[in-house]
Amino acid sequence: MNAVRYLDLTSPSEAMDVLKEIGVDPYGIQAMVPKMCTLNVVIRGIECKVANIMKQEMLSIGGDVAVSRGTVACSIDKTDAVIIGTNKQMRRFAEKISLQPFGLQRLSENLQTVMRNIERQDFIIKTPERTLTLGGHTAIMGILNMTPDSFSDGSRFNNLKEAVACAEQMEEDGADIIDIGGESTRPGADPVAEEEELARVIPIIKEVKKRVRIPISIDTTKAEVAHQAINEGAEIVNDISAMQFDARMSSVVAREGVPIALMHMRGIPKTMQEGDIAYRLFMDDIIDFLQNRIHVARTAGIREENIIVDPGFGFGKTMGHNLQLLRHLNELKVLGRPILVGTSRKKFIGSITGGEPRERLGGTAATVAASIMNGARIVRVHDVKFMKNVARMTDAIVRVPG
């Protein structure tokens, strides 16, 4: 009996390999690969007359559009819609609706942008000192906390010498970036005065800059801290507030020409885990927030190519939210920006595996692997050497050569 098996294709290049193995003609491969990759795209709040046009156009080329009951008769005002089809059908659909009225031309443009974004594999960001390519392998961002109340390693470094030695060890262990912070962002943490934060991070940045060759990132929400850190050699700003806490941050980043990581968070660290943590549409809310902050950054003069996005694991999210975010991290690809993930030693891991923060190595490794498999390009970790090997192995599984 002839064997029948299921093909789990995760990329166009995998589809191409299957067809080459069979011996399909090169022209046939070019025609068939787009038919083998399927997409589901959701669009919110469409007028019924527009949704009906979309459904007709997609049905005519073999796809479909799922809409709310009552759409066909226009007994409701608006509907959400899921467009269902292969890559080839999506492209043909985008072409067809570009000729239609009622705003469908704009929808066509947006759909084409989304398709380009989710297919993108590599990103290039430029610091004042170097060009970084994100894609061939997952970048490891090592955490160097200069905070006495960090949830994981508070008071770990009693003096400058120990902190510098840690940074040097991170580089030796395979870190691609060192992220230095002087204010704890654990749930319930009190804010730190600007002068105190500067006193914590500037001396270490000065010394680390002399000793390591990899870029330094400054983890701060304060524009003045970012400014002084950049003057001492920091090349990336990692802002958990996505430039919301300090209105001057965008001008500093734009003027200095450094990349910035924009993170999703609800509220402030002091209170972000209090009360009822509810979302309207969880993934939509995160993506909409990050999309808005990208727009704000671009408007301020920050190059889009230098924007990194972080969905903010553990920041204003329940354990269920964090797990959902891991499962659906790929959806952030619609933003067209490299994804940074920081799950290291976090509480939601301990809720499942047990143990204090430093005992969550295995759980962290699982989240790092899942993040990479679902689109992360940078992982922020405490245990650099161990997670470097986790990332290397996961990259070998998911980064298809060629």
What are its keywords?
Ribosomal Protein S8, Chain: A, domain 1; 402 residues; alpha/beta; eight-stranded parallel beta sheet; globular; 17% strand; TIM Barrel
How would you characterize this protein structure?
Helix 1 crosses helix 2. The protein has helices at residues 12-22, 26-36, 48-60, 87-97, 104-119, 160-173, 194-211, 223-231, 249-256, 282-299, 319-327, 347-353, 361-373, 384-398; strands at 38-47, 64-67, 78-86, 123-126, 131-134, 139-145, 177-181, 216-219, 236-239, 260-263, 307-310, 339-341, 376-381. The strands form 3 sheets. The chain has an 8-stranded parallel β-sheet with strand order 11-10-9-8-7-6-13-12, with helices on one face. Strands 1-3-2 form a 3-stranded antiparallel β-sheet. The protein has a two-stranded antiparallel sheet with strand order 4-5. It has 402 residues and is of the alpha/beta class. It has 2 domains: 37-119, Ribosomal Protein S8, Chain: A, domain 1, CATH 3.30.1370; 123-398, Dihydropteroate synthase-like (TIM Barrel). It is globular.
Which helices and strands, and how do they pair?
Blueprint: H1 12-22, H2 26-36, E1 38-47, H3 48-60, E2 64-67, E3 78-86, H4 87-97, H5 104-119, E4 123-126, E5 131-134, E6 139-145, H6 160-173, E7 177-181, H7 194-211, E8 216-219, H8 223-231, E9 236-239, H9 249-256, E10 260-263, H10 282-299, E11 307-310, H11 319-327, E12 339-341, H12 347-353, H13 361-373, E13 376-381, H14 384-398
Parallel strand pairs: 6-7, 6-13, 7-8, 8-9, 9-10, 10-11, 12-13
Antiparallel strand pairs: 1-3, 2-3, 4-5
Helix pairs in contact: 1-2, 3-4, 4-5, 6-7, 7-8, 8-9, 12-13, 13-14
